[in-house]
Specification:
Order of helices and strands: HHEEEE
Largest sheet: 2 strands, parallel
Strand order of the largest sheet: 1-2
Shape: elongated
Structural class: mainly alpha
Number of strands: 4
Length: about 220
């Protein structure tokens, strides 16, 4: 008994002089664990119910070809996610983060993208027919070959956007920001441009007069 008490006393003194520290795994271990965790998180998204995707974290996930029809994606984060060839038609994704997302050839027909963040996103050959993009931020987005037939782009921010082979028939650009945008190769027939903002850097098709469409020149 005396021997055990003596050992305990020595051990306590040792702890005071050499306090135990938490386990610090090597950097490679932490990085590998983070990657595996991210892959598992992205994989689980394909099996989730559409009604449970609000505030979803899908940043940098590869979701090519995924179908999320009528899903509630308010507040969802798709930063740098790969959503190419995905079917997202009719989904409700107000204020969704799609910054730098790859949406090439995706279907977003009649989708709701009001106030969505689409800066620097890839929307090449994307079907956005009748999509509600009111107030969306499309700064630097690639819209080459996109189908925006009848889309609502009112109040949308489309600064420096290049519209090449983009179908804008019947699109609503009321009060949209088009400073620096290149519309020189776009068909603006039947496009509503009243009070849309442009500057001296904005390019229009030959013979197009923005004043005839009640557009607003921003000189600064």
């Amino acid at each position: 008994m005396k021997f055990n008490i003596t050992l305990l006393f020595i051990y306590l003194i040792f702890l005071q002089q050499n306090p135990l520290k938490g386990f610090n795994p090597p950097a490679s271990y932490s990085k590998t664990t983070t990657v595996k965790t991210g892959l598992a998180r992205c994989k689980q998204i394909r099996h989730k119910e559409p009604t449970t995707l609000r505030h979803l974290n899908a940043a940098q996930c590869n979701l090519t070809g995924i179908t999320l029809i009528s899903a509630d994606l308010r507040g969802a984060n798709f930063y740098q996610a790969n959503l190419s060839i995905a079917n997202l038609s009719g989904r409700y994704n107000k204020r969704t983060n799609l910054t730098q997302a790859n949406l090439e050839q995706a279907r977003l027909i009649n989708a709701e993208l009001r106030w969505a963040d689409l800066r620097w996103s890839n929307l090449k050959n994307t079907s956005l027919r009748w999509t509600d993009m009111h107030g969306a931020n499309l700064f630097g987005a690639d819209l080459k070959g996109a189908d925006l037939f009848g889309a609502n782009l009112s109040w949308a921010k489309m600064v420096d956007v290049v519209f090449e082979d983009t179908d804008l028939f019947g699109a609503n650009m009321y009060r949209a920001s088009l400073m620096g945008a290149d519309l020189s190769r776009a068909d603006l027939y039947k496009v509503r441009l009243r009070l849309a903002k442009y500057n001296n850097a904005t390019k229009f098709p030959p013979g197009f007069n923005p004043r005839d469409h009640e557009m607003v020149l921003v000189e600064k």
